[in-house]
Specification:
With 175 residues, this protein is α/β, with parallel strands linked by helices. It contains three helices and nine strands. Helices cover 22% and strands 31% of the residues. The structure holds xanthosine-5'-monophosphate (XMP) and magnesium ion (MG).
Length: 175
């Protein structure tokens, strides 16, 4: 990896888009018991901004997932390393994730959470690398669709670095 990462979406552009998403979510969940489930760690910044943009009440909980196998790409064999603390049966659940790439992780998570019989289950992703899908997966809310590049910042990391960056940046080279 070399140099300063190149900005793809600035803090200001992100703020505007997150406000739009929060507005849509507020309208569609008005009067419902909304539980927002963040996928750690990548979603933490997006989720923090999203919930503060809502004008309806919600509760929050978190899961942490790990993929079996080596490498930076998903194997599709996922496990939960930190489970929800909330019983989601009968709840309106909105999963919030940083990015959908192959779709393997979110397809697995949705299937797993569906078995717990929530009243409804939708997914909100900050970024969508739609060209990279290996299994069919469509998020209900998408911040931005992006081309196939490795991105960091706004919660997204490369080897745990760059999560703190307020902008989304492209890493030109992955060492
Ligand atoms: P799948 O392929 O299962 O995986 O949809 C989604 C997970 O892959 C990681 N991922 C990225 N993380 N920059 C990142 O920081 C990226 O460009 C990127 N692409 C995929 C991420 O952990 C996500 O949850
Ligand atoms: Mg992630």
């Amino acid at each position: 990896m070399e140099g300063k990462p190149e900005i793809l979406f600035s803090k200001t552009v992100i703020e505007g888009r997150v406000r739009e998403l929060a507005g849509r979510i507020s309208g569609e969940y008005a009067g419902k018991n909304l539980l927002i489930v963040g996928v750690l760690k990548g979603a933490f910044v997006f989720m923090a901004d999203l919930v503060r943009g809502l004008d309806i009440p919600c509760r929050v909980d978190f899961v942490r997932l790990a993929s079996y196998g080596a490498g930076s790409t998903s194997s599709g064999k996922v496990r939960i390393t930190k489970d929800l603390e909330t019983d989601i049966a009968g709840r309106h659940v909105l999963v919030v994730e940083d990015i959908v790439d192959t779709g393997l992780t979110l397809a697995w998570l949705v299937e797993t959470l569906r078995q717990r019989q929530p009243a409804s289950l939708r997914v909100c992703v900050f970024l969508d690398k739609s060209q990279r899908r290996q299994v069919p997966f469509t998020a209900d809310y998408v911040g931005f669709t992006i081309p196939d590049a490795f991105v960091v910042g706004y919660g997204l990391d490369f080897n745990e670095d760059f999560r703190f960056l307020p902008d989304v940046c492209v890493l030109r080279e992955i060492a």
